Amino acid sequence: MVVHYRTQGFILKQDNLKEADQLFTIYTKDFGKLKILGRAIRKIKAKLRGNTQLFSFLELEFIQGKSYKTLTDAIVIDKFSEIHKDLEKLKTIYQIADLLDGLIKGEEADEKIWKLLSETFEKLNDLPFIIYHLPLIYYYFFWNFVSVLGYHPQVDNCALCGKKLKPQNLSFIPEQGGIICSNCLKDKKETLDISPETIKVLRLILNKDWLIIRKLKKINESNLNNLENISDNFLNFILSQIN
Ligand SMILES: [Zn+2]
Question: How confident is the model over 221-236, as pLDDT tens digits?
């Protein structure tokens, strides 16, 4: 007997294979990240074609074949049409999908990641078109996601001596897992500068104070660049640890 598995999931990637087949990367509620084959799904008459748009939220059913899991049913719960209407929002969700796909290797359900991904899709879909919020959505996902994966950064106390950090220009060291105080900085060579404003935004993100983040006035270019630099370096460090 063939077992049909049912779950919910977000389509994060679509890769075209031979003969109108398509391989979906879907983050599911009950099984974590899965690769699921859509057999002949690119044919005009394919039953499931209209229900498997990239970045849709689905109720889906699949079976475990010899080499692939195969999609047998899909019902759209949400298409997130506001995301699809907006190129910048689309770019942001591509970035989030890439990040998730790059950092998650196995098939394992994770309630925290599921919740974070669900709320990120909803926030992005609901967000009015204000360009400076969009990078913050990515960083909101990024920092909370890596925290769930075991890389929660130290942003309140020095990552080395544990003393409470003062509101001033400080340094972030990916290898040490966070910000260090000016005392501990003395014998360190490779560090990244982090501004008090960036530290503030990082704390809001990690506390998931979305209502406050949403109300933030435009964070200025240099702080946004600072946040980008810290995030990219931390991501590279994490990638070097897991690959
Ligand atoms: Zn210290």
Answer: 899 999 999 999 999 9
At 54-85, the pLDDT tens digits run 999 999 999 998 889 999 999 999 999 999 99
Domain ranges, ordered by start, for the chain = 4-78, 130-242
d(CA 53, ligand 1 centre) in Å: 49
The predicted-structure confidence for 176-186, as pLDDT tens digits, reads as follows: 999 999 999 88
Rounded to the nearest angstrom, the distance between the alpha carbon of 233 and the centre of ligand 1 is 20
The token pair at 1 is 């007997």
- Cα(168) to centroid of ligand 1, in Å? 13
* Cβ–Cβ < 8 Å for 63, 4: yes
Q: Under CATH, which number does the domain 4-78 receive?
A: 2.40.50.140
